[in-house]
Amino acid sequence: MSVTVSEYKNFIGGEWVDAADGGTMEVLNPATGEAIAEVPRGTAKDVDRAVEAAKRAWPEWFETTPGERAEVLLKLADLIDEHTEELAQLESTNVGKPLPAARDELPVASDNLRFFAGAARLLEGKAAGEYMRGYTSMIRREPLGIVAGITPWNYPLMMAIWKIGPALAAGNVQIVKPSEQTPLTTLRFVQLAQEADILPAGVLNVVTGDGVPVGEALVKHPDIRLISLTGDVETGKIIARTAADTLKRVHLELGGKAPVIVFDDADPAAVAEGIKIAGYWNSGQDCTAASRVMAGPKIYDKLLEELVPAVESLAVGDPAESEELDMGPVISKDQQDRVLGFLDRAKGAKVLTGGGSNGSRGFFVKPTVVTEVGQEDEIVQREVFGPVVTVQRFADDDQALAWANDVDYGLAASVWTRDVGRALNAARKLQFGTVWINDHIPLVSEMPHGGYKKSGYGKDLSAYSLEDYTNIKHVMAKIN
Fold it and tell me: What one-character DSSP code corresponds to residue 128?
């Protein structure tokens, strides 16, 4: 059965199906606030159907070789490259991000699939050998079985690929629940894969709907062996607690509050340009966003002189009206209210630029720079997840590192200095999963991405992510 993705059905067992209860929900364009699609409002019944489909697919998929799975992933990567413009247009409309930014994400997604195509063929384990006299031991690295991925609204397709790649490479079958706000590119990608006859029925299933009941049902289902979530901290806590009842694995990539430590010997113009990109990319809706700048006493004023005009130069608008934009809206009215609420509550802070919306149409927040904030202030301690950057002045290196680590999050950080020793010392002491030196935000498929503290545990990207999606089995044979 094949349908056009405009019908927006769930994809279960190789077929496009309505929600079991027939419910639907609207998807909005955040640049206009208008409905652009309807998708199924899934329930626990849809999750049960997807699990049964995955169970049927599992025995045959388990028998595939790493080389065969690699071929599937390579074909999926080619599919993204062949349909980059269509997928980028859809992502831009659904998320509200500038079209060039949406285009930039797709080669990253296809590269990730190609990386895992190679990684599938090079799973590592301890060498077979005689570790006890008279016995030969060997290690098998095996798939878990049925795994589930819950993806976010800020990078819908790219984050789905971050879960699909390692899951399928390791030999698992999978159910993906995209964000109810941004499911369209995931559905279209899976439709393209179906039309190209790349995936056996039931190996990859997509169920749309709200976190409760769909996400909750995935976490509670006893036959699902792993839940991988990219989302916020509170959702991660709920998933971890709920998953404990079935002792399933949990992989969590949660919030961030990335510090940007700018030492006095840094180039203020280069730092300002880096923050202009990393602080406001995707409207600041990025867990690694350069949202918390700490500058040394000598560079503080110079940095602001560079940063404020750089931020004011950002072109903001509806991505459908121009490709010459740096920033679109935030994802929803709720998110707009949340971001502006942080600014309203930041009593005593000074807004150097931005600080409001761009009129009543769409869910916009102006690119904002805030100073005169204290280390204990809410706007410094909590993730805003919008185009808001705070700037603080530190007294010395020790204070900079202490402030950087003094948050609940630990996903990413950056250090800006010409002094290699100073940079490496800071990288050693910073409690974050990624530390950049003289840059902020680039990621590559070969290197791991994941957090410390309340930013979660487990890794996306790289061969390290395969640890979450595989079981280690010891096989011991008596030889005499």
Answer: P
Which residue, 203, 347, 337, 363, is CA-closest to 283? 363
Q: Are 222 and 245 in contact (CB under 8 A)?
A: no
Sign of the CA dihedral 25, 27, 33, 34?
A: negative
User: Are 380 and 374 contacting, i.e. CB atoms less than 8 angstroms apart?
Assistant: yes
DSSP-derived secondary structure letter, 126: P
Do residues 185 and 193 make contact, with C-beta atoms less than 8 angstroms apart?
Answer: no
Alpha-carbon 260 to chain mean position: 20
> Active site residue: 91, 105, 180, 287, which one?
287
For position 6, what pLDDT does the model report?
A: 61
CB 189 within 8 A of CB 79: yes
- Residue 140: CB atoms within 10 A of its CB come to 12
Q: Which two tokens stand for residue 56?
A: 């049927």
SS (H, E, C) 365-384: CCCEEEECCCCCCHHHHCCC
Nearest 5°: phi and psi at 389? Answer: -125, 130
Please state the rounded mean pLDDT for residues 59-82: 98
Rounded-to-integer distance, Cα 381 and Cα 392, Å: 13
φ and ψ of 190, to 5 deg: -65, -35
Look-up of token digits 């609204």: 153
Contact 27, 41 (CB under 8 A): no
Mean pLDDT of 407-414: 98
The pLDDT of residue 1 is: 37
- pLDDT tens across 229-283, in order? 999 999 999 999 999 999 999 999 999 999 999 999 999 999 999 999 999 999 9
Hey, what amino acid is at 188? R
Count Cβ atoms below 10 Å from residue 264 Cβ, excluding itself. 15
Q: Residue 315's Cα: distance from chain center in Å? A: 25
| Chain mean pLDDT for the chain | 96
Strands 368-371 and 412-416: unpaired
Distance of CA 316 to the CA centre of its chain: 23
CA distance 426 to 436: 10
Q: Encoding tokens for residue 124? A: 């590592």
Q: Sign of dihedral through CA atoms 214, 219, 223, 229?
A: positive
- The tokens for 445 are 């498929």
Instruction: Measure CA 91 to chain center.
Output: 15
CB atoms closer than 10 angstroms to residue 150: 24
Ramachandran quadrant class, 463 (left: phi over 0; alpha: psi -120 to 50; beta: rest): alpha
Check: pTM over 0.85? Answer yes or no. yes
Active-site choice (91, 105, 253, 306): 253
Is 287 assigned a catalytic role?
A: yes
C-alpha separations of 301 from 298, 304, 337, 397, 404 in Å: 7, 5, 31, 18, 20
